Structure formats: structure tokens, C-alpha cells
Prior knowledge:
Structural class: mainly alpha
Amino acid sequence: MTQDTLSNVAAVLESRKSADADSSYVAKLYHKGTDAILKKIGEEATEVVMAAKDGEPDKIVYEVADLWFHTMVLLAQQNLHPDAVLDELQRRFGTSGLVEKASRTQN
């Protein structure tokens, strides 16, 4: 998924925020609220784990795509753009994971 793809998906998700709940799956999720979105993220994360345990690459990719999508729904619902996540990943790039984690526990 390129940054353009993320931005394109983010634009569609943003447009669904003002749509009628019966007009799309995402509009319905927004209408149901944060708890429904979080529940879907939890379900998708579990499906990623199960796919990884099965060791089927195509299934893993499919489930991770679902997880990313529903996480992007949450970002949009919270008025955040995927670029904020990409910026955070860029900030961490080149930093040891152990150092980065230690900096979080000190804050």
C-alpha cells in the first residue's frame, strides 16, 4: 500500500462520516460509534493472529488488510490522518526498538 493508497482510502473514509448510516458499511460503523469500531479492530486483530498461526501467507495479508482498514476507520473517526502514523514511524526509524521502548517508560 503506497502513501497515495492510504490517502485515497482516508479520503473515502472521511466522506463517509457525513453519509447516511444505511449508505455504506463505514457510515454504519461511524453511526454505531467508537465502541463498534474498536470491537471490529479487536476482531480483525484476532483474525490476524489466527491466520499467522495457520501459516497461510495469502490469509495473513487478507486479514492484515482488514485490520489496517478498520484502524483507518478509527483514525478518521478520531479526526486523524494516516500521515500522522507514517510520521510517527518515520520519527522512530533508525532508533533501536529497545531505546524507543525505554523512552516511553521514562515519560
